[in-house]
Design a protein that fits this description.
34% of the residues lie in helices and 25% in strands. Helix 1 links the parallel strand 1 and strand 2. Helix 7 packs across helix 8. The two termini are 43 Å apart. The C terminus is likely disordered. Bound molecules: L-homoserine.
């Protein structure tokens, strides 16, 4: 990109589209919006007609527009827009985590082939500057793990459920009204939105392009009263976290699941709309970022930051993605977990643990805490839809070599 002012074609005028429009009204020294394309002609919009269009070609075929900002909901349509723009030599900014995660390799390939930059800081953690940090800062200091609260809707629901005893449905409705939830909120509550974000973060942190379906994923739908009672008793909070850990042998695990957060943990204060990302690096040790993870202006602030980055000729280098040392995704890891279940499942479940710390049951439900392999947990999750899984942490003690070999497996083969 040259240092000329950027001429923007904006796709979408929803919550974030309107947010970036508003921000650029007050600060348009480096970029201004020339055209906005929206899908539906029957909605009333606070815009003048010359700038508004319903034809994507009004942006894609306009040679003066050198930056396309894609902020629509539909991932397939977004992919068509983004790839067409890149092929036409236009720089692109997007916040569409599903589209980016599902097409990561092709999007990297197109950027290299057409020498057009594509930035997407708003896709993970909204206002938190995490992607560019993972991409640039840790080039010479090996990352050992990243862990994030990367979905605001579930964090909002879980904060309300634990602190105010609010029902799941009421809290979800509130998250929808505040513009945090996806148009299909099951993407939030079943952890897929967090898995897409983890997939993107993993590519920038470790150079490993991780298919979201290869991430071990548990949502928050199955949480039951006894889980919250346990959390209150132990003074924990429950948060949906997404994490990668890189073992000394160069093996990586990818997990999205509810986790008990004790009061001393940095995530303990990350409530409601806030997101947080914790990195651990070989020399830098632990670092923690936090900020608003959804909503019009926090998300638009990341888009604005990408506009400024493009203005100053920034592009992702994907240096780890093209390195010779890409880790293997292999979930030969063990977790300390809590499982709650209807009482009739007790016998079946207890034999799946490597070791049990605590076991409780009343006449209806029970729970077990102990150590289990991710492989075994994945099987349980696929077999029983009425068990609730919450993680304490990764089990760090060494498991006997032949034991771990017996359990080791490649997630991609699941
Ligand atoms: N539905 C997403 C969330 C929006 O709740 O985090 C921001 O990506």
């Amino acid at each position: 990109m040259s240092q000329n002012k950027l001429s923007i074609g904006l796709f979408g005028f929803g919550c974030v589209g309107k947010g970036i429009y508003d921000l650029l009204q007050t600060d348009h020294t480096i970029a201004s919006i020339k055209k906005i394309v929206v899908k539906s002609s029957d909605k009333k919009r606070p815009l003048n007609t010359p700038i508004l269009s319903f034809d994507p070609n009004d942006i894609l075929n306009d040679p003066e527009i050198n930056l396309v900002i894609e902020l629509i909901d539909d991932a397939k349509a977004a992919f068509t827009i983004v790839t067409s723009a890149l092929k036409k030599g236009k720089a692109v900014i997007s916040a569409n985590k599903k589209m980016i995660a599902e097409n990561f390799r092709e999007l990297v390939h197109l950027q290299k082939k057409f020498k057009t930059p594509f930035l997407y800081e708003a896709s993970c953690g909204a206002s938190i500057p995490v992607i560019r940090n993972l991409e640039e800062y840790y080039k010479c200091c090996t990352l050992q793990s990243i862990e994030g609260i990367v979905n605001s809707s579930t964090n909002f629901i879980l904060s309300r459920a634990l602190e105010q005893n609010s029902s799941f449905q009421i809290a979800l409705k509130e998250a929808q009204e505040l513009g945090y939830a996806e148009s299909d909120p099951s993407l939030d509550t079943e952890g897929l939105d967090a898995a897409y974000k983890l997939s993107i973060l993993t590519s920038h942190a470790f150079g490993k392009c991780l298919d979201a379906t290869a991430i071990f994923r548990v949502g928050i739908n199955q949480l039951r009263d006894i889980d919250f009672e346990y959390a209150r008793r132990e003074k924990y909070k429950i948060k949906l976290v997404a994490f990668n850990v890189l073992s000394k042998e160069g093996k990586l695990c990818g997990v999205v699941a509810p986790k008990f957060i004790p009061p001393h943990h940095p995530f303990y204060q990350v409530d409601d709309v806030l997101n947080g990302v914790l990195t651990k690096a070989a020399h830098g040790d632990v670092q923690f970022f936090s900020g608003k993870g959804a909503g019009a202006l926090p998300t638009a602030s990341a888009v604005l930051s990408d506009i400024a980055a493009l203005y100053h000729n920034y592009t992702y280098s994907y240096i780890k993605f093209f390195s010779d040392h890409i880790p293997l995704l292999e979930n030969s890891f063990y977790l300390n977990i809590f499982i709650s279940f209807p009482i009739e499942k007790r016998e079946i479940l207890q034999y799946r643990f490597l070791s049990i710390d605590e076991s409780f049951s009343n006449q209806q439900v029970g729970y077990i805490t102990g150590v289990i392999s991710i492989k075994e947990l994945w099987k349980l999750k696929c077999t029983y839809d009425d068990i609730s899984i919450i993680i304490f942490d990764l089990h760090h003690e060494d498991i006997e070599e032949n034991e771990s070999r017996e359990w080791a497996f490649e997630l991609q083969n699941v």
